[in-house]
UniProtKB/TrEMBL annotation:
The species this protein was found in: Thielaviopsis punctulata
Name of the protein: Phosphoinositide phospholipase C
Lipid metabolism among keywords: yes
Keyword NADP: no
EC number(s) per entry: 3.1.4.11
Length: 527
């Protein structure tokens, strides 16, 4: 579920119920629910009530004994069967915007029409803005008693008016929807070990707090990494960073998560309702895992010798030869949703909700957290397949972007923002049925040696599409595999349909080998 997209809506309670019901079926590891809050004060309180009701003791609301969030965070073992909320902290008057008299009237109309009728004429006529904790005109601090509060009798009783109820992100001439809502104290207190921080630069004071998480746009992270790779990489060794899709992705498309994993980013928010290239890569990373994948050794805080991913990755040249022999049920049905996607065994969550671990400093094997799948969306328009299916198999290897014309900075790091990763693809001839047979010799796909491969962060993707002449080739089935899991020999490649449900398989022979090469050298810093 995510705002400002064309996704079908669902209620917040339904999301919480699904997380509680399915979140810990496969493993007891903790779940981090990342909240992007656009709700007003009453709604935020309602959200807290719902989470406490639906999650009960699963919800982490207080620090664990021996783990002060100012100094250290728990291990995964300490957080089993716990749900952690990632949200910004409540900072009182420092984080609060102006509350005008009109804002108070609006809140009261929503809460109780009778309270509005009990306002005194003086209060109605007052055109003064009320800052929470500060008088705008004089600049002097105001006490809580000086705030107008509306009780059942219409008096200025401070005990009946919480200062948070005055909070509004509206300013003159601006709509409340254009600003981020201020976080209330009741919601902010749930961010015990996972509190969101707005990134303002590498000199901000809270950058060393163990519990902080920076959420940064997919467009900005590559630029930050290109300008200061050592700083970004060092931060991500010990603290969380989360990448979220660009605001222009109103179609719920996904970025390439591997590009961020290579920069040490632990969490990449994915739109599970969209089955595209990014979701297939995400599937490959977390397939047959417990929602967590250990980082390669060079990406961990215990390794003091690596400065960027150029040092941390083990670079290899890959030789690959694949022979397609046959397929079974590669086109699972006569109709196929063109873009809907949901994992059949996963739980429901907010669109940016993620499963995660504590920062690298707290665990011996820091992990990349995987996102939680959402419930099956409304069916997408079906794609009618031809009566005679002609499946074409495309095999694509995805590695780090290697365009020679990209400029490098002084430390040899390339800004690949907006650039596609390096891909090498080969296609089979079209088959003649849902069970294609490529004969005794098979269809041989002999790849040229592929340089600059780091097998733990590179992937191979099998896509089966229906060969058509008059329109785009619809997706029939697919599989994506991390290269370090690709084994030589006679293999069955299990296929998934567009909803990630197992449907068929390919029978192949794989011949793969890797040879290590020297890591890319850093370019000398300019004098």
């Amino acid at each position: 579920m995510h705002g400002w997209t064309v996704c079908p809506p669902c209620t917040f309670r339904e999301v919480c119920q699904a997380i509680a019901k399915y979140g810990f079926i496969q493993n007891p590891l903790p779940i981090i629910v990342s909240l992007e809050v656009h709700a007003d004060v009453p709604q935020q309180r309602c959200m807290v009530d719902i989470m406490e009701e639906e999650w009960g003791d699963l919800l982490l609301t207080e620090p664990l004994e021996g783990y002060d969030p100012q100094f250290r965070v728990p291990t995964l073992a300490d957080l089993q069967h716990r749900i952690l909320v990632k949200v910004k902290k409540h900072y009182g008057s420092r984080n609060m915007a102006v509350a005008t008299t009109a804002d108070i009237f609006r809140h009261l109309r929503h809460k109780s029409g009778e309270a509005l009728n009990r306002l005194t004429p003086e209060t109605r006529r007052s055109g003064l803005d009320l800052y929470v904790g500060r008088d705008r005109d004089s600049g002097r601090h105001l006490s809580r008693e000086s705030l107008v509060s509306i009780g059942s009798t219409g008096s200025a009783a401070t005990q009946n008016w919480d200062a948070e109820s005055c909070i509004s992100t509206e300013s003159a001439g601006e709509s409340a929807t254009s600003e981020q809502r201020a976080i209330t104290e009741c919601l902010g207190r749930l961010a015990v070990y996972t509190h969101g921080e707005r990134f303002k630069g590498w000199q901000q004071a809270n950058i060393k707090k163990p519990s902080h998480i920076f959420s940064i746009s997919e467009k900005r992270i590559p630029a930050l990494y290109a300008s200061d790779p050592e700083v970004v990489f060092a931060h991500n060794k010990s603290f969380f960073m989360r990448a979220y899709p660009n605001v222009v992705r109103i179609d719920s498309s996904n970025p390439d998560p591997a590009d961020f994993w290579r920069k040490g980013v632990q969490m990449v928010a994915m739109n599970w309702q969209r089955n595209d290239y990014g979701m297939m890569i995400n599937h490959a990373m977390f397939a047959d895992e417990d929602g967590w994948v250990p980082k390669p050794p060079g990406f961990r805080s215990t390794n003091k010798d690596t400065l960027t991913h150029l040092d941390a990755c083990v670079w290899k040249t890959m030789k690959l030869r694949i022979t397609l022999h046959a397929g079974h049920n590669v086109a699972p049905s006569k109709t196929l949703p063109s873009s809907s996607f949901s994992s059949p065994s996963s739980s429901s969550a907010i669109g940016s909700a993620s499963m995660g671990t504590m920062p690298a400093a707290a665990t011996s094997a820091p992990l990349y957290p995987s996102s939680i799948a959402g419930p099956p969306p409304d069916p997408a328009p079906a794609v009618e397949l031809d009566k005679t299916v002609e499946p074409v198999v495309r095999v694509t290897v995805h590695t780090e972007a290697q365009q020679k014309d990209l400029e490098k900075n002084s430390r040899g790091v390339t800004d690949t923002g907006g650039k596609k990763p390096a891909t090498v693809s080969l296609c089979s001839p079209a088959g003649r049925s849902q069970n294609p047979d490529w004969g005794d010799e098979g269809c041989v796909m002999d790849f040229e040696p592929i340089p600059r491969v780091t097998d733990k962060l590179s992937y191979i993707r099998f896509t089966v599409r229906n060969h058509t002449v008059m329109r785009s080739n619809p997706l029939l089935s697919w599989q994506c595999i991390r290269l370090d899991r690709l084994q030589s020999g006679f293999r069955f490649i299990p296929l998934l349909n567009a909803q990630a449900v197992p449907c068929g398989f390919l029978l192949v022979t794989i011949d793969v080998s890797f040879s290590e090469v020297p890591r890319p050298e850093h370019m000398p810093a300019p004098e």
